[in-house]
Amino acid sequence: MEEELRRILSNPEFQASAKRRAFLRFIVEEALAGRAARLKGHAVAVAVFGRDETFDSQSDPVVRLEARRLRRDLDCYYVEAGSHNPVRISIPKGSYVPRFEWHEPVQAADTSRGGETEPGGSYAQSEAPGAISHSPSGARLSMKSLVVAFALIAALGAAVAAGWYLTAGKENVVAGSYANEPAIVVLPFEALTRDEDNNHLAEGIRQELIGDLMRFAGFRVYSPPVGGEKAATAEPVKLARDLGVAYVVTGSLRTGPGELHVATRMFDAATGQVLWSGTYNRALTPESLIRVQDDLAGEIASVLGQPYGVVAGDLKLRAATPAVSSMKSYMCVRRAYGYRRGFSRAEFEPVLGCLEEAVRRDPAYSDAWAMLGWLHLDAGRFEFFGADKLQDEYQKGFQAASKALVLEPDNTLALKALSSINHYMGHYEEGERLARRAVELNPHDPDTLAQLGWRLAVRGNFDEGIPILNRAIERTVNPPGWYFHLIAVDLLLKGDFERMLQVAQRSAVNGSAVSQVLIAIAATELGQRDTAKAALEELPESGPIARDAKAFFRRHGSTDEIVDAIEAGLAKARQAASTPED
């Protein structure tokens, strides 16, 4: 282990700063000395970053941020320079205790023979932090192996699966949070206006983009060594295949007098197909340089990484093909995202069962636990298993989401789930606190913004909540209907029924019963009886709104003002719809 530490620190391709190198040396030496239990944020801050005994991780996140960067440094090192090292050092998320793993690569068989193969070494996870694990030939298969197995089923499957996670014939598997998540590599951006300042700006945007992408759950992000010969000369798609990733992001920039032009593309590493491209123009001054760099990186990361973004859309298409339709835990989480666009009762139980199996199969997969928390919350608030099961389902959801947060304290999906569950349990302040924490961690994710905006607006804080919801909508390619509901309610309270109807109709994309209620209320106020009647007819006759609309909206944490306005508007709409026309 000490030799591996020396090997890493002496290698020029290990990109960590001096402080992060000291961080790595400290935690490895402490673990090897039997003091792993001391490796908490406070101890690291004092020993490595020069903080005093008053250090507070809540107000000073230096250890957490540098740990994230150090994990990325290690991942990048093991992609290339350290790919054949006999030992691998990693730092599991949510901990500062290093993990040591033996690397025993298995030679890839010739897949053209149709036999079973495991193309690359499999890294078995240690049973305890700081322990050493071996990867015998019978160890759990890596996702790369699963992909190759699918590829052997059919030629079409091979063509599609080739770019999925880690490609065949590569001798090392890149360690990540979860082996079943796809990987993205962000290559160095090219400065078309060739001077040192533009080179620094190009690299600055790329590094910010990597950092912003890492805030999104569901995939791993890698960077080749900066300035490395391979990164500078290889074709982007070929390099991505060599690195064993699913997607590759490239970019270029040029500057003119007072302006900056950036072009970005994302490729499918298996086929070379351009999945997305974007161009961005910004005014550029010395004073705005850092802000422009941050804004551009955040905007690009949002387009690519959000739950309904480019990567998610491509994965959804792949999931419809035979080659990937049986992908396990990761695809369960993606299915859950799809279900949560419209909360369809028909989709609920299959997705719930899939997630329950996922956490049994991969008990350390925090995203699956977080989504399971969401599903149990839905079972309660939508009465999928009956009104008498509501509190039981809330408690199950709370336990699952709490488990996710224990596994990964900075997981925004887990924070959002626990925020929502606390809200529905009546813990409104805690729900808001967790939602704000999620936005702090990932301010570029529209879904995270929408969760906070909804939470604020439903409790009557429209002045802060509505602008946040509008920001989420602007950043989402195809926003789910619930993003619009509280905006329509705000317009109801203001008496702006024309705009309310427009917003409510936009929210009805997924057939939501709440959308139909809002349409009926607005249409009635505008004298559009047929529209109101049609909306009321869309409401399920035996659903919770039909049984007791007031209780339904109160259950969602709505204020008395909101509940009373909806109850009065719905009663008026029903009366108007049932009155015979003259």
Automatic annotation (TrEMBL):
Q: Which InterPro entries match?
A: TPR-like_helical_dom_sf
Q: Region entry Disordered: which residue ranges?
A: 108-135
Keyword list, A-Z? Membrane, Transmembrane, Transmembrane helix
Task: Give the domain of life.
Answer: Bacteria
Asked if the Swiss-Prot or TrEMBL record annotates the protein with the keyword Protein biosynthesis, the reply is no
Give the transmembrane region(s): 146-166
PANTHER family named in the record: BLL7664 PROTEIN (PTHR12558:SF33), CELL DIVISION CYCLE 16,23,27 (PTHR12558)
Listed name of the protein = TolB amino-terminal domain-containing protein
Q: Which organism is the protein's source? A: Stappia sediminis
